Structure formats: C-alpha cells, structure tokens
Amino acid sequence: MTAPEAAALPGVDGGAEDQYRLRLYVAGQTAKSVAAIANLRRICEEHLAGRYKIEVIDLIERPQLARGDEILAIPTLVRRIPAPMRKIIGDLSDTQRVLVGLQIVAPTSAANGL
Known about the structure:
There is one protein chain. The protein has a single domain, classed as Glutaredoxin, CATH 3.40.30. By secondary structure, the chain is an alpha+beta fold. It has a 5-stranded mixed beta sheet with strand order 1-3-2-4-5, covered by helices on one side. It has 3 helices and 5 strands; from the N terminus they run E-E-H-E-E-E-H-H. The longest helix is centred in the middle third of the chain and has 17 residues, at 31-47. It has helices at residues 31-47, 95-101, 107-111, and strands at 6-9, 20-26, 52-58, 76-81, 86-89. The termini are far apart.
C-alpha cells in the first residue's frame, strides 16, 4: 500500500440509511491483498453502487490498527455500518459468500443464484 496509513477507495455517498462502511485490512501488495481490493471494488460497484465507502488499511505500515477490530488473519473485510459488525476473511473471490456475509442478500437467495 502506498498510502501512509489508510487509503479510501472511491464510493459515492448516498443516503445514510443505505450506507455501507467497509474496512479492508491487508498486508502490503501481496497477491491476496491486491485480489481482495479488486474483488471488493467490483462487488461494491455491482451491488452497492453509490452506497458504500471502503477504507483500506495496510497492516505492514500500521499494525496497531489490527487491535481495534480484532484482526487475526488477512485480508479481512469488516462491515462497520450497518450494524452489527461483520467480518469476512479471504481474498473475497467468492462473490455469493461476500454478499451473504455482508448481508446484502439472504442466504437462500445466494443459494438459488439470485
């Protein structure tokens, strides 16, 4: 990550009630970190266009930030808003798993490919 502590990825702010505040913890520019960033951006643009904000935190540069969200593995995505907080570990390549994990779609909808 080239930013000194965290990099905000673009996401257009909409109404506060529909907002998703996401924090992605990565470790440098590893293949998994780069894939997780790209996958998250794609998923957000396809399913949350205009209703999300992503903050990327590079734990190589700021390891102390892992404590606040109790990060044990990386990459880890944390949904901070809407409550309750949710976590997804991995490169976010399984779109349906991410959508269910973020509670964007119900588990039954994801199983049916909807």
